[in-house]
Amino acid sequence: MIRTEDLHKSFDGVEVLKGITTEFYQGKTNLIIGRSGAGKTVLLKLLVGLFRPTSGRVWYDDVDLYSLNKKQLRNIRMQVGMLFQGSALFDSMTVEENVRFPLDMFTNKTRKEKLDRVNYCLERVNLEGVNSKFPSETSGGMQKRVGIARSIVLGPKYLFCDEPNSGLDPKTSIVIDELIKSITEEQNITTVINTHDMNSVMEIGENIVLLSNGQIAWRGNKSEVLTSDSDTLRDFIFASPFLQKLRSTALEKE
Ligand SMILES: Nc1ncnc2c1ncn2[C@@H]1O[C@H](COP(=O)(O)OP(=O)(O)OP(=O)(O)O)[C@@H](O)[C@H]1O
């Protein structure tokens, strides 16, 4: 589990996060949602340790992230997988080399052990046999799956995904969402996903944190979305008249 405790973050005196206290559960897909500028990326960066909070704490289970020295931080980082927006693959490396990269960086495994692990992860994302292709020779959805294989190659306890569906069509997005959810469950990972995607909210929203103006405006799961009486949530999720009508119809049928 990851827990934040009264997290504040300011830039040049402007407060962007105003006291975030919440929990992200193990074995679940935890979603951070909210309008542009709400503070989602800043929160994700604080969770990963890319920014320091102005005040407050981030707990990885019983470890206080911002009290760690460099060596302890490196140990925690080895337990963290990251899936970046746009996949962030190295263009000059093959798929195999991309997925192997964290193993080369952080482990002393033999070449054979690394290859076995890479092949296992590629198989897990249904990409066996593409080892020698370059990212430019694969589709956006395949690149995303290579990114997922790379993010799980070290067997992370914690997985952070920044807009995993950006640039993907709705069907491929669902495939990626389902893949992240099933890997999260099967490997009991604490997965935190920053997303704008309403399909993701309704498909894999097991613990949803809605940020608005740097604060938590609502928290719940996908089945609570439809019936919530939070105005902020309703304005965000059911932004179009079409979706508002769909919601009213669903509520009438209850
Ligand atoms: N490094 C920074 N320095 C100064 N201000 C920043 C910095 N990073 C973010 N901000 C500000 O923090 C606020 C929240 O930004 P953030 O990127 O977290 O929003 P977001 O919810 O992720 O939006 P989007 O969905 O558009 O990515 C914005 O007003 C932004 O300008």
From TrEMBL:
Which positions, given as ranges, span the membrane? none
Show the InterPro entries listed in the entry. AAA+_ATPase, ABC_transporter-like_ATP-bd, P-loop_NTPase
* SMART domains linked: AAA
Q: Where does the source fall among the domains of life?
A: Bacteria
Q: Which Pfam families match?
A: ABC_tran (PF00005)
Domain ABC transporter residue range list: 2-238
Which UniProt key words apply to this protein?
A: ATP-binding, Nucleotide-binding, Transport
GO molecular function, a single term: ATP hydrolysis activity
PANTHER family documented for this protein:
INTERMEMBRANE PHOSPHOLIPID TRANSPORT SYSTEM ATP-BINDING PROTEIN MLAF, PROTEIN TRIGALACTOSYLDIACYLGLYCEROL 3, CHLOROPLASTIC
Q: What is this protein called?
A: ABC transporter ATP-binding protein
**Organism source for this protein?**
Flavilitoribacter nigricans (strain ATCC 23147 / DSM 23189 / NBRC 102662 / NCIMB 1420 / SS-2)
